Amino acid sequence: MQKISIALNQNKIYFAGFSAILFAAILFLLVNGKEAAFISLNSYHPFYLNVFFINYTFMGDGIFAVCLTALMFFYFKRKQAGFALLYSFLISGLAAQLLKNLFNSPRPKLYFEAGTYLNFIDGVTLSGSSSFPSGHTATAFAIAAVLVLMMKNKNWQLLVLLAAILVGYSRIYLAQHFLLDVIVGALLGTVSGILAFYLAQNRISIRRSIKRMHQVPAELAPPAAMQAS
Fold this sequence. Notes:
Helix content is 72%, strand content 0%. By secondary structure, it is mainly alpha-helical.
C-alpha cells in the first residue's frame, strides 16, 4: 500500500485534475438533470468533429487496450507495465459489464425514441439497454491511471488526463451514453487502474503468498513411510 501512496503523491497533478473535472461534471449534472445535461453536451455537431470523435472513441475500445498491452509486453519489453494494463482492462471491463447487466439502463437513442430529439449520427449511435456505465470511458481511464502511475516522465500527466476525458466526452457526443454513465465509467476506470497498478507491483509476492496458502505445513504432512505405502 505504501507504493500506491508514493505513486499517487508523485502524480498529484493528474489526480487533482481528475478530481476537479469529476466535481465539475457532477455539479453540472445535478444543476441540469439527466436530459438537459445530455442535450447541452450533445448539441454541437460540425462535420469535422463527427469524423474526429467517430475515430477517437476507439481509444476506449477493448481492441485498443489489447494492442497497447501487447506493445508494452513485446515491443517496449516492460513486463510490469504490460501486466498492469492487462489487469486494468480486465477489472474495468468485467466491472462495467456486470453493472450494465445489473442496471439494464437504456442508451440515449432508446431513451429519446418516443421524443423529439433527433441529434444522432447514422450508423454510429447504438440503441439498446446497456448505457450505464460507459465501458469505453472505464477502459480509457483505467489505461490512463496505469500510464501515469508507471511513467517516469511526469510532464505527460495532463495530456494523458485530457486523452481520457476526450474518450468520455466522445461517448456523449456520439449519443452512446449519458453524462452519469461517463462519470461512473471514469470513477470505475480510475479505481481499476490503481488496483491494477498495485497487483502488478506486487504480482510476485502475491503469487508466493497464494502458493504458501496451499502448502501443507510440515507438522501436518503425512510421514514418508505412509506416503510410500
